[in-house]
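Dear support,

Our group has been running a series of protein-ligand predictions, and this particular one with pyridoxal-5'-phosphate is the one our PI (initials K.S.) wants archived with full inputs and outputs. We had some confusion internally about which version of the output was final, so please treat the block below as the authoritative record. The input we submitted was:
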Amino acid sequence: MADDSAYRPETLAVRAGQERSQFGEHSEALYLTSSFVFPNAAAAARRFSGEEEGNVYARFTNPTVTMFEERLAALEGAEDCVATASGMSAIMALCLAHLKQGDHIVASNSLFGATVQLFSNILARTGIATTFVSQTDPVAWEAAIRPETKLFFLETPSNPLTEIADIPALTAIARARGILVAVDNCFCTPILQRPLELGADLVVHSATKYLDGQGRVLGGAVCGPKKLTEEVFKYLRTAGPTLSAFNAWVLLKGMETLKIRIEAQSANAARLAAWLESHPKVARVFYPGLPSHPQYELACRQQKRGGAIVSFELKGARKEAWTVVDHCRLLSITANLGDTKTTITHPASTTHGRITPEARAAAGIDESLLRIAVGLEAVEDLQADLERGLALI
Ligand SMILES: *Cc1c(COP(=O)(O)O)cnc(C)c1O
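Confirmed final output from the archive:
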């Protein structure tokens, strides 16, 4: 496409990044090849040195992966994107490309569980320290800054309590001190929220979730200006957690329906959240699209819709929560999210099951809390499925 920036997101999701081969295939081609051949020795030397653009080896680049990267970059409004094997390898690559021993991260205390483990165990062992602060309190982020702070890392809305981080407020604090801001945009996708436009330096994705959208493959990405993504590319090229061509091809096909999926799933989530809020067995609903959400106005400014994750507390505890889960016939009992199939999770005994009860309470994870990642089924069918268990408590 000549000038991607002139097209709207739904057009970019279908068209951006496609590079046709000599055969003129209509659908994006899947290049299952680990290496590439050169016409002669001099060309090989030029490709290796970087003097000539082109593919060398699939740990560096692959044409199917490049199409995925260009499509996601166009959607995020980023100059560049580098794809990774998973969301976690995107976060790992971002950190190891831009941080070194002695550096410090300030991060939200409500990040995805594996991200918390990555920061507090793996990066800590390499001499990169992290201070975790409240997602919703910019003053705490500012107070946690040290002379060696190099990165703010946040994820908004958070999982499972849908707390919103004020991206413009946090980036203003960081920018004044030369600190990079990275946003995990997995939950909103660029259709609902574009962190780079709000001031962030880098966006990371678990493509495994809404970009695929149908629960098939793992993938990840880091998007941003080339001067920052280039370092991530150099790390990946050497360390190796790059995206496979097959997964990139699945993700390209998934992204074609991203806009209609995330909009329809958000609309379903909004209806389900309103229904839950009026339900006599439900104590509290967490959904950024509800006016009762404590950060509703910030969510409206920053996101186009509330997203597809709804959490709620019951009038009860673990027993009541498990009753609802165990009477679901339609909702899948799984911790995954971002699928067209609706999923239900009891965070206190699964995603947050390994932390102490005190730490769980401090994180606001009640024993009665359930998280639903809303899919594309009819809302009435989801309600009937939940009502079966709710009626018993
Ligand atoms: C799933 C997830 C990740 C990790 O992604 P993988 O593809 O599973 O490695 C990171 N951040 C968020 C918000 C996620 O939901």
